[in-house]
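Researcher: Please translate sequence to structure tokens.
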Amino acid sequence: MNKYIKSLVAFALGACVLSCQKKDNTPVDLSKVTVAFISPTQGQTYHQGDTININTNVAYIGEIAGIGLQIIDSATDSTLFEADQDTHTDHFNFSSSWVDDYPTATTLQVKILVFVSNNTAVPAERSVYIKTQP
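Model: Translation complete:
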């Protein structure tokens, strides 16, 4: 009887471990990544010292491994701010903020990079462009 109980416990533990290890076999299709920018909005103008709140809803048909954010000066292609978040889900509400300390009037690209499982080397990219003034 004791051997029977040990076998049952071992089977239950094995089944539990195997059921928790999910493998996403969804074929990669980066065109199916959706990024809804809540803020900022396309063409919005900020001034030096303003806080830019970045809020997006990100979704994909498979697993999203992580999300990245870059704020880039479009004129010089220099990155002014970066942030990232590990997610491991099929949808995520991403939020971050940056204080606009840029002293030059220019257009900034707010870029969201979505890394999906099975293809973490090449992210899907979605952007809005905003303006900054001194």
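Researcher: Any highlights?
Model: Residues 29-133 form a domain with the Immunoglobulin-like fold (CATH 2.60.40.2550).
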